[in-house]
Amino acid sequence: MADTPPLSTTGNPALKLDAQLCFALYSTLLGVNKVYRTLLRELDLTYPQYLVMLVLWERDERNVSDICSQLYLETATLTPLLKRLEARGLVNRRRSPSDERQVIVSLSEAGRALYAQVQHIPGCMSEALSCSQDDIVALRKQLLTLRDALFQHV
Amino acid sequence: MADTPPLSTTGNPALKLDAQLCFALYSTLLGVNKVYRTLLRELDLTYPQYLVMLVLWERDERNVSDICSQLYLETATLTPLLKRLEARGLVNRRRSPSDERQVIVSLSEAGRALYAQVQHIPGCMSEALSCSQDDIVALRKQLLTLRDALFQHV
DNA sequence: GCAATTTATATTGTGCGCGATGTAATTGCA
DNA sequence: TGCAATTACATCGCGCACAATATAAATTGC
């Protein structure tokens, strides 16, 4: 039954695209990225670069693995990204004197100053989501539960 | 106020990473991809490739822009992906005789046969999400509402 | 009937995102 | 003390994802 030729009327309903939570997540994120691209274009930042700036604005002087774990990314992703931010003059990178294996990432003056230029972004995104603040809070909570389950599973 | 040096106690609360719905979405999708990578490794498929196969299993013989619009992707993303699936022998690509601009994508015999090998995947993913079916349905619905708002906004 | 426009797909360049692998610094422990 | 194991980061290769651009086919307007 399950492995018969997949005609739309006979296929496994769980394999239908429009039934899948993961595709809803995936395609929604495509939309999020699209909106962020327009919001961040004038700052010449990508969304992942913006995320790195957000974590540094919250707490400066962090090593790479700190940033990795907060953003759920691998160093293979962040090392080149941080080098691009350094090349743009937004962050500095230096080895920790106490542990030469660690690279300490810190905001440059320009990186700190950029904070003033992103104040409107949460509001713009909120508007794009056109969704009540209560819904946003509830949805965020549900997603974090999912995220924990997914990362725990692997 | 908003553009003072971003100390963690004085910064704009809306710019805190852990308050952001979009980061919850982003990081949750990283987890989804991680789980799919392990599930799809034995089939040697990536998640976007799996999505293309899903849409073809639902309805075969579709042109590229059909697939693009159903997956919310651009042709610049799908054209190389489809060529890789063709090189793997899972799909065929041919120009439409009635409109030479269109490329019709269809399942090969191997592509159809692969359907039998993915029957367990929704169940595995469901388990990884460790979340009630009702929650999944509700969450999916909320995400689709968000997605519509985001794509309408741009 | 043919130029202008639109449509469908392809190409190029840039930036993620990560598995696999490498290297140097540090730690642990016999 | 010495050396194996671990940790922190970097590098490489591949596959998305898309903006910008190109090209050819089809359609429209006149």
Automatic annotation (TrEMBL), chains A, B:
Taken from the record, one Pfam family name reads Staph_reg_Sar_Rot
* Domain HTH marR-type per the UniProt entry, residue ranges: 18-148
Where does the chain cross the membrane? Answer: none
The record's listing under SUPFAM superfamilies reads: Winged helix' DNA-binding domain
| PROSITE patterns xref list | HTH_MARR_2 (PS50995)
Q: Where in the cell is it found?
A: Cytoplasm
Query: What keywords tag this UniProt record?
Result: Cytoplasm, DNA-binding, Transcription, Transcription regulation
- By its UniProt entry, which InterPro entries does this protein fall under? HTH_MarR-typ, MarR/SlyA-like, Transc_reg_Sar_Rot_HTH, WH-like_DNA-bd_sf, WH_DNA-bd_sf
- Superkingdom is Bacteria
**What Gene Ontology terms describe where this protein resides (cellular component)?**
cytoplasm
Among the GO biological process terms of this entry, one is:
response to stress
Cite the GO molecular-function annotations of the record.
DNA binding; DNA-binding transcription factor activity
Q: Which PANTHER family match?
A: ORGANIC HYDROPEROXIDE RESISTANCE TRANSCRIPTIONAL REGULATOR, TRANSCRIPTIONAL REGULATOR, MARR FAMILY
What is the protein name given in its UniProt record?
MarR family transcriptional regulator
Native species of this protein?
Rivihabitans pingtungensis
The organism's taxonomy opens as: Bacteria, Pseudomonadati, Pseudomonadota, Betaproteobacteria, Neisseriales
